[in-house]
Amino acid sequence: MKLFEYQAKEIFEGSDIRVPKRTLIKEISELNEAIRQVGVPCVIKAQVLQGGRGKAGLIQFAEGLEEAKKKTYEVISRAKNMYYLMVEEAINIDKEFYISITADPISGCAMIMASAEGGVDIEEIAKTMPEKIIKTYVNLSEGLLPHQAHNLLYELGIDESMISQGTQLLFNLYDVYCKNDAELVEINPLMLTKEGSFVAGDGKISIDDNALYRHPQFSLTREHFESDVQYEAAVEGIPYLQFDGDIGLMCAGAGLTNTVFDLVNDYRSSVACYLEFGGPNYHKAVKAMKLIMQSELKVLLVVTFGTIARADVMAQGLVDAMKELKPDFPIVTAIRGTGEEKAHEILRGFGLEPLADMEEAVKKAIELAGGALVE
Amino acid sequence: MKLFEYQAKEIFEGSDIRVPKRTLIKEISELNEAIRQVGVPCVIKAQVLQGGRGKAGLIQFAEGLEEAKKKTYEVISRAKNMYYLMVEEAINIDKEFYISITADPISGCAMIMASAEGGVDIEEIAKTMPEKIIKTYVNLSEGLLPHQAHNLLYELGIDESMISQGTQLLFNLYDVYCKNDAELVEINPLMLTKEGSFVAGDGKISIDDNALYRHPQFSLTREHFESDVQYEAAVEGIPYLQFDGDIGLMCAGAGLTNTVFDLVNDYRSSVACYLEFGGPNYHKAVKAMKLIMQSELKVLLVVTFGTIARADVMAQGLVDAMKELKPDFPIVTAIRGTGEEKAHEILRGFGLEPLADMEEAVKKAIELAGGALVE
Amino acid sequence: MSIILNEKTRVLVQGITGREGSFWTKHMIDYGTNVVAGVTPGKEGRTIGEVPVFHTVKRAMAHVEVDASLLFVPPRFAKAALKEALDAGIKKVVILCDGIPLHDALQMRSAARLAGAMVIGGNTSGIISMGKAMMGFFPYWLDRVYKPGKIGIMTRSGSLTNEVTAEVVKAGFGASSLIGIGGDPVPLTRFAEVLPLFQSDPATDAVVIIGELGGTMEEEVAEAMKKGLFTKPLVAYLGGRTAPKGKKMGHAGAIITAGKGTVEDKIAALSGAGAYVAKKPSMVGELLKSALAKHQI
Amino acid sequence: MSIILNEKTRVLVQGITGREGSFWTKHMIDYGTNVVAGVTPGKEGRTIGEVPVFHTVKRAMAHVEVDASLLFVPPRFAKAALKEALDAGIKKVVILCDGIPLHDALQMRSAARLAGAMVIGGNTSGIISMGKAMMGFFPYWLDRVYKPGKIGIMTRSGSLTNEVTAEVVKAGFGASSLIGIGGDPVPLTRFAEVLPLFQSDPATDAVVIIGELGGTMEEEVAEAMKKGLFTKPLVAYLGGRTAPKGKKMGHAGAIITAGKGTVEDKIAALSGAGAYVAKKPSMVGELLKSALAKHQI
C-alpha cells in the first residue's frame, strides 16, 4: 500500500525526521490561509500516487500569492484523481541527496541506498552511474549499527559537522522502515539546507500489504485507487488491474494470468482488464464477474489450471454469475485441473464450449473480439 | 542493584504479570487501613533485601486483623534496616512453580530456569535434583520464541488450558528482563491459583549496575544498604563491604583485595572492612580514608600493585588523607607498581615504612592488631 | 534419484490438524510420502490417518526422527514455525502459505542461511519428486502433468506449473523433481541455489525453469550457467513479458521496480548464457527436444 | 613463539585519540607492537605518533591490512565498536574497558562466536607476548614481572597478575604469553577457550591461571584437562577462597550465586584433574618448579 506524500511526511515528523512547514488544502479557497501559514516563496504539490510529479507539472514553485494561485490552478487542471494539494514552504537548499530503504531478497537484509546525486531519477542513476549509489545492508535482527551509518555518510562526502545529524536521520529512517513493515521508504530529495539541517523534501512510503494486519492505522481508501472498480476489487482482496483493450481476463493463478496477458498482446489484441481469482478467491466468480462488468470489454476469457482451486467450483461459479448478472459479452473458457471433467459438464450444460487448451482459448477470444491474429 | 519485592511487583504489574493485591505500610498504625484494602486472610512481608525471608520469620500469614497485628509486631522486631512492610492478600494456591531469567555466560544467551518445585530454595533443588530444573536459552537478538515457551510449559506439566496464559507470562517476564537490563528476574513462588491464574507470589529483580545509565528511573537510595557508610561508598562508586573484624583493607584491584582478604583470614585474623580503590578510584585516597574511618578497625592495611593506578599517586593520597584526617590506627603499606620508587620516597618522607611484599605486609598488620599468626 | 525429497525422507507436518494440513497429509501419504509426525500445539495425542500429532517439533523429535518439515501454517505464524524447525535442527523445510509479511521473510531468509538449511517457499505448491513423494499440494492424479521422467522443473508460479509441465509431458518427457520456489518477492531459496542439485542429479537430463517478471532470479541462473556451474540443457519460459512497468502482476514478487526485473532483461541474460527461452508454454516441449538433441552431439 | 599476538601482528586501535588510547598506543609501539592504524570517528587525518587515524574501521582497512583490533572505547560504546571490528572481518579483538553492560556482553559473546572471532575482555589489562608486543596496558618496565620465558599465564584480574607473575619470575621463570581474560561475569573468551592455544604453543612449557571466585571458568579448565585437551603442567591460584557467599567481591564476575562459583569447588575440580593449586601467590613459583620436574620424569 503506497502512502501519499502528506502521509509519509506525517510519519517522518513522528519519527523526528525534519520536514518543511506545510498545509494540506482541498480547494483553492483555502490557499490564502495556507500561504499565511507556510509563507512565500512556496511550493504547490499535487497529492497523487503517480511517480514523476515534477516532470508532469504536478509540483510548482511560486514566489508570491498571485503566482501561487496561478500555479495551483495549473496543478488542479493537470492532476487526475487528486483529493488534496500540499502547500509547502520553499527550502533554502545547499545540496540534495537521495536515500531509500528497501528489501534485499538475496541477503535477507534491509538495503539502504544513498546517493549524493539527489533530486533526480534514481533509476536513471542506477543505470548510467551505478557507482554513485552507495549500498548498506542491515540485518534486521541486529538493526542498523552506528559504524554502518558513519561509513555511509563519510562515503557520501557529508561534512564532519553534519555526521551526527546524518546518523540520527539514518536511524530515524530505519526506524520508520521497521516500525511500519515498509517495502520502501524513500526521501528524494533529502535536502541539506544552507542553515545546516537535513530536511525531507519529499517522502515515499509503501507498506507491505501482507503486514497490514499489524498496522491497523493504515487502511486502503478510495483515494489510493484510480477508479471505483479497482477500489472495490482491493477491498474484496481480488487482484485487479484496468487497461483499455478488448479482452477481459478472469484467470486463476498469477503466473497463468500473466501468460494469458502476454499471449493476448502477442497476437496483437489487447487486454481490457486483468482479474486474478485463483487461490483463496476461486469461489468468488460472481463477485469477480460484477467487477469485470464494470469494464468495457468485447470478450471475457476465463483460463484456469488449478489444484486447490477446483475447476468444477469455478465453472459452477461462472455459470451462477452468468445466470445472475446476464453479461452481454461472449465468454471463452479453458477451465482445467482438479475436477475438470465435472467442470466441463457444468459448462456444456449451460451451453458454453469448454476448451482444453489455453492458446486455443486465447485465439478464439481474439477472433470473437474481431481482432486479427498477427503474431 | 537489587530491587525490593514491592518494586519488583510494580514492574511486574506494568508488564501485565499478575500480582496479588497489596499495600505498603511504614508503621503499624497503617495496618487497619491496609487490611481493609487487601482483606483477610493476609500475609505480612518485610521489605528487606536479604534472602530466605520465610525461614527468618520475615513473612507471616494471618487469618484476621488481630493475628495480623501480632504478626506485624513480630516481623518488625525481627527485621533489620527495614523501611516498609507489605500487607498482601492471601492467594488460593493450587500449585507453585519456580521461574527465573539470568545470563548464561557460556552461550551468551539469557537463560530461563523453571521448576515445578516452586516455593522452595532453588539452590537446594539445583544441588539435589538438578533434573527438576528446566533450562531454556534465549538469544537476545532473536528474543524468546513461541516454541521455546511451549516446550518449557509442556515440560513443566502445565495443563493445556493454562498454556496460553503461561506463554504470555513468559513473554512478559522476558520483557521485564530485557527492558530493565536485569541480571536476574525471579518469581518464586509463581502461584497457579485454584481459579486458574498465574500470580507472582514473590518478585526478585536485580538491575545490572553497569547499565543503570540507561535506566534513570532506578536510583540507589539509603534503603538499599545496611549502613550509612556502605551507601556513601556506593554513591562514590567505591566497592566497599563491611565486616566486624580487626583489619581494614584499602587495596587497589579487586583480585588483589580478595587475595589479601584470604591471607588475613588464613592467618586467623579478621577483616574489618573491604575497600577497593583501584581502577578509576586510585586518586580517591582521602575519600577512601573517610569511609574507612567510619569502621571500627585496629590496623589499616594498604596493598597495591598498579599499572595505570600509579603507586606514587596512591601514596601521596594516603599521606594527604593522614594529614587531613589524622586516623588513630596504625597503617601498613605494600604499595608497588608504576611509580613505586617515588611512592616509597613519599611514604618514608611521612615516616611510614614502605613494604614491598604483600605477605609480609599482612603479617605485619596482624601483628600490630595483636592477633596470632596461626596458619 | 530425485533432489531434496524421496520416498524415504522422513517428513514432519507443522500445522497438520488444520483443514488443508490434514487433507493434503492424506494425499501426500497416498502418493508415497513418508510422513512420520505432525505438530499442532495443544493437539498432542491425536492422529491424522496413522500419523501421530505432537505439541511441538521438539516433542515430536523426541519420538521420531525427522529429515524435513512441511509448514501448513498461516502466514503470520510462518516465521515462528520456521524458527522452531530450524532450532530443532531440521535442514529441509517447505513453506506453502501465501502472504508472509516481507520483513518476516527477510528474517526467515537470514535465519535459514545462518542455519545452513534449505527452506523452500513461501507462496508455493511445494515440491514433488515424481512417483515417489511430495511435500505440498499437487494434483498428482492428473497424469498428463504429473508423469515421472528426466526433466527437472523449477517454478515461481503454481498455476503456470500445470500449464507448462503438461507441455513437457505432451512432448514425450516427464519430470524428475519439481521444485516450486514460490511467487514471493523474497523466496527463501532461489533458482540458482537449487540448480547445483539438478546439476549433480543423474536422474535429471535437463531443466525447465518457469519464471516471471520481477526480481533477479533468472539473471542469477544465467550467471551460474556462464560460470559453468550448470552445464545441462536449460529451457525457460517467463511470464509477464508484456506487463506494464510498476504494476504488481498478481504475485507480490512480480513487479518491475527500480528498473530491474523486466522479462526482456531476463531473456537476454538467459539466451546469452546458452539457455533456450520459450516465448509461450506450447514451445517448451519442442525446445527441450532440440536442446537435448544438440547437447548429445 | 607466542599465542594470539606477536611482533608482526598488525594492530588497529579503536578509540586511539582518547587520553588512555593515545598514551598506551605510544607505549605499545615502544614495546614493539606493530600498530598500523587507529580509528576515531571525526578524527581522520590526524596521527598518533606515526599511526594514521581514520573515521571508521572500514576506512582504515581500505588503507592498511589489519590482523587484530584493540578497543580503547568507553563501556557504553564497546558493543558497537566490537560489531564494527567483526563486520570488517577482524578475527582477534581485545576489549579493555570495565563496565560493559551485562546484556551488551551477552550479545557481544554471541556475535563473536557467530563471527568465529577470538574476542578477549572486557575489564582486562589486555594481552602481552613477552618481549614482542602487547595490546593493552602493562607496566612492562617492571622487569621483576614482565620477563620473557616459557610459562603461559591466563588471568581474571589485573592487579593480581602483577603479584602472581612476580612470583613466577622470582622462581626463575618468565612468561611466554600473558592473556588477561578479564574480570567480568561474561568474559568474551573463557579460560578453556585459550587453553588449546597454549597446548599447541611450543614456547609454552606450563600454564599458570589466576582465577577467583564466581562463575565456572576454572571448572571448565579442569574439564578440559580431564578430557586430555590440555596435558602440560598447570598451576592455579584462586582469589576469594574465604569470601562470604552472595557478596560481589570487587569484580562483577566475582560473586557466588545459585550455589555456584565457590573457590572450594574450583580447587576440588582442578586438583581432581591434576592441576596444582597454590594457596597463596608466594606458593606459585615452588609449585611450578615441582610440577615441571614431575612432568619431565
UniProtKB/TrEMBL annotation, chains A, B:
Q: By its UniProt entry, which Gene3D superfamilies does this protein fall under?
A: ATP-grasp fold, A domain, ATP-grasp fold, B domain, Succinyl-CoA synthetase domains
Q: Which UniProt keywords apply?
A: ATP-binding, Ligase, Magnesium, Metal-binding, Nucleotide-binding, Tricarboxylic acid cycle
SUPFAM superfamilies, per this entry?
Glutathione synthetase ATP-binding domain-like, Succinyl-CoA synthetase domains
Q: Which one of the record's GO molecular function terms can you name?
A: ATP binding
Q: Which domain of life is it from?
A: Bacteria
Give the signal peptide, or none: none
Has the keyword Transport been applied to this entry?
Answer: no
Q: Where is the ATP-grasp domain?
A: 9-216
GO-annotated biological processes: succinyl-CoA metabolic process; tricarboxylic acid cycle
| Names of the cofactor(s) | Mg(2+)
Pfam families for this protein:
ATP-grasp_2, Ligase_CoA
**Ligase among keywords:** yes
Q: Which GO terms describe its cellular component?
A: succinate-CoA ligase complex
Family in the record: Belongs to the succinate/malate CoA ligase beta subunit family.
Q: What is this protein called?
A: ATP-grasp domain-containing protein
Organism this protein belongs to: Bacillus aerolatus
TrEMBL record, chains C, D:
Q: Which GO terms describe its molecular function?
A: nucleotide binding; succinate-CoA ligase (ADP-forming) activity; succinate-CoA ligase (GDP-forming) activity
E.C. number: 6.2.1.5
Tell me if Metal-binding is a UniProt keyword of this record. Answer: no
Instruction: Establish whether keyword Phosphoprotein is in the entry.
Output: no
Active site per UniProt? 251 (tele-phosphohistidine intermediate)
- SMART domains assigned: CoA_binding
Keywords annotated in UniProt: Ligase, Nucleotide-binding
What's a single GO CC term here?
A: succinate-CoA ligase complex (ADP-forming)
Q: Which InterPro entries match?
A: CoA-bd, CoA_lig_alpha, NAD(P)-bd_dom_sf, SUCC_ACL_C, Succinyl-CoA_synth-like
Q: Which GO terms describe its biological process?
A: tricarboxylic acid cycle
Q: Which SUPFAM superfamilies match?
A: NAD(P)-binding Rossmann-fold domains, Succinyl-CoA synthetase domains
Per the record, the similarity remark reads:
Belongs to the succinate/malate CoA ligase alpha subunit family.
Which PANTHER family does this entry report, sorted A to Z? SUCCINATE--COA LIGASE [ADP_GDP-FORMING] SUBUNIT ALPHA, MITOCHONDRIAL, SUCCINYL-COA LIGASE SUBUNIT ALPHA
Q: What is this protein called?
A: Succinate--CoA ligase subunit alpha
The gene behind this protein is sucD
